[in-house]
Amino acid sequence: MTAITLNLEPVIHLTDEQFYQLCQANRDVRFERTAEGELIVMPPTGGETGDRNSEMNFQLRAWNKQTRLGKVFDSSTGFKLPNGVDRSPDAAWVRLERWEALTPEQRQKFPPLAPDFAIELRSATDELKPLQAKMQEYRDNGVRLGWLLDPQRQIVEIYRIGIDVEVIQSPTTLSGEDVLPGFVMDLSEIV
């Protein structure tokens, strides 16, 4: 099952608060929202993808528990990016000082910032082009390091600000570089 995109404009224009309330009223459904106001309904993942997502988040969280440099978020967290879109990466990380600069209300709702680091994991039913566009959107909005993990092709695409996308075939590990100092993700159970 693939994501469904609903064009609500110009009939319905959801404010940020209405979009938040829609998400709260439908907690079993993952929504994203494009800059054009389209509502994207995300299907639940299958078992293989869910297991891979858990492994990614586990490794990122374990590293962060040791370093205490930021906050880790899973795929159920929505972020209000600077261009107005609402996105939910499969895994994300925000530097602690940026997180602490938010008000309690901003932390409670969809944080109005781009994560410093984001991962998207391609499931068997995901189309590649929309995921690549999403990664580009993350980068355009200030995500300093992004990984698109594609188990089907055994490829990782690395997105960095101001640098062409790097494509790596069959990597066994990935470095968090200077964004996540000392973090190395073991991909043996993911890609």
Radius of gyration, rounded?
Answer: 16 Å
Q: Can you give the helix content as a percent range?
A: 25-40%
Number of helices: 5
Number of strands: 13
Broad shape: globular
Give the strand line-up of the largest sheet.
4-7-8-9-10-11
Average pLDDT, rounded to a whole number, is 94
Measured by DSSP, the beta-strand proportion falls in 25-35%
Largest pleated sheet: 6 strands, mixed
Indicate the low-confidence ranges by residue numbers. none
Distance between the termini: 21 Å
Structural class: alpha+beta
Q: Give the SSE string.
A: EHEEHEEEEHHEHEEEEE
Which descriptors would you attach to this protein?
alpha+beta, 5 helices, 3-stranded antiparallel β-sheet
List the SSEs and their pairings.
Blueprint: E1 4-6, H1 16-25, E2 30-33, E3 39-42, H2 47-67, E4 70-74, E5 79-80, E6 86-87, E7 91-95, H3 96-100, H4 104-108, E8 117-121, H5 128-140, E9 145-150, E10 155-160, E11 163-169, E12 173-175, E13 184-186
Verbal overview:
The chain has 191 residues and is α+β, with helices and mostly antiparallel strands. It is built from five helices and 13 strands. The chain starts with a strand and ends in a 5-residue tail after the last strand.
Describe this structure in a few short sentences.
By secondary structure, this protein is of the alpha+beta class. It contains five helices and 13 strands. The strands form four sheets. A six-stranded mixed sheet has the order 4-7-8-9-10-11, with helices on both faces. Strands 1-3-2 form a three-stranded antiparallel sheet, with no helix packed on it.
